[in-house]
Amino acid sequence: MIEAIIQAIQQVILSPSIWLVILLSAVYGISLGAIPGLTATMAVALFVPITYWMDPVPALAGIATMAACAIFAGDIPTTLLRIPGTPASAAYVDDAYAFTRRGESEKPLGMALVGSVMGGLFGAVVLILLGGQLAKIASMFSVAEYFWLYLLGLSSAVVVARGPVLKSLLGLLIGLLLALVGLSAVHTEARFTFGFPQLYQGISFIPAMIGLFGFSEVLRKTIDLDTDLFTGGIPGEERSTLSSAGFLERWLIGPVTSLFRGPFSMIANRKRSFLRSGFIGSLIGMLPGAGADMASWVSLAASKKASKEPDNYGKGSLEGIADATTANNSALAGTWIPALVFGIPGDSITAIMIGVLLMKNLNPGPEIFVNQPVLVYSIYVAFIAANIALLVVGYFAIKAGRFVIRIPQRILLPVILLFCIIGSYAIQGSYFDIVIMLFMGVLGFFLERRAIPLGPIVLGIILGGPLEERFIQTITGSEGLILPFFDRPVAAILGIGFLVLWGWTIWSSRKEQ
Fold first, then answer.
1. pTM assigned to the model
2. For this UniProt entry, which segments traverse the membrane (predicted)?
């Protein structure tokens, strides 16, 4: 094992060609990920034809880098434009955008970058040390366990949302209702399509997410163009300090330290929270179908429950951003555990990765650890190198993004609308997705006027279909309606945890009232 690790380090760290692939992949991943609607999966899928002429290690290193960078890049439009670049970013979109409205956009972006890098490094360490053991835990999950896991993920959206629990629950029910549109995996009849064949496949969550957060914000700002909500730039005290410093201090050392000092200090002072978020991300990431999206929501809910200032969540909490971004990037490494150990993709990106391995005549599974140990550890080392590259490339992306908030609203709002349209159309090349985006934007505009949070709606659309499928599968062929959900130890633990969470939430809500 030690010899394989040393060879892997030499193969990756000491190879200029692999570092070149990682850096180019980082720039490519951030460039695509920062555009709403262009996901990490799309970035990796477009990269696959190039891997045909590449060796396995640089090809897989490029895929790992693109995934990590694209997930962080989604935080840029989330913070600057209130358009979640990824579903994981929807968990903390209100927290991040609150800083932009106060002219402090670099604070959440710096925190998201550091949290993503540290979470990615933590996930890589977990992948190296505990990959095989964690995979055994994943093998214990059946449909009942996934049912409770999805319910816990949905409950997290209600827990972290600001405002009354009933309004958050209403938003979640709206999302679940929208998830029922079209055909499902367990029904042969289309539902709520109203004669539109485009709805047979259901409502795509990316146009819905862009409309709920992006287009609704355009509508809200259009009502009052005279109010300048963007006051970006460097705060006055920091600006005066930098202007009187030397050249290196002003243009290199000062900006770097001002961006990274606070986030690294926060993580150092909150070690328990960092470890909790990292483990949540790694554990959820290794479960097929869960991924970074659910890890972000669950970690944010756990962060709010453990915080001394839970009222700040949803209004501008760096703690919530730190914990959520740590979890979603540590989940990326977790998704590779079932893919390498069992050949079961943890998400769409690892499904593409398995295809690349098969294209190289490499079969994922237990044999790959015996026959190709250097390759496996090279993948692990590539994760570490990818996050180092993300720290550098992400810094310049943040500095470039600050100019967006200086654009006058009369110019910026049409540009945001254009991004909303392009992002909605780019997924499937469907004009109907643009209609969905516009409809969801109007819906989100009126719901926000009634103080109904939008985050639970997005998560309801994403998890509603899998939740229904697992529910039907659990009760089909079983005696009774309750026993099948508790007859396995892991299912019983998750089910009791779900009931305790909701009991505690209801009790806390009544106590506050």
1. 0.75
2. 12-36, 56-74, 109-131, 137-161, 168-187, 199-219, 336-359, 379-398, 410-428, 485-507
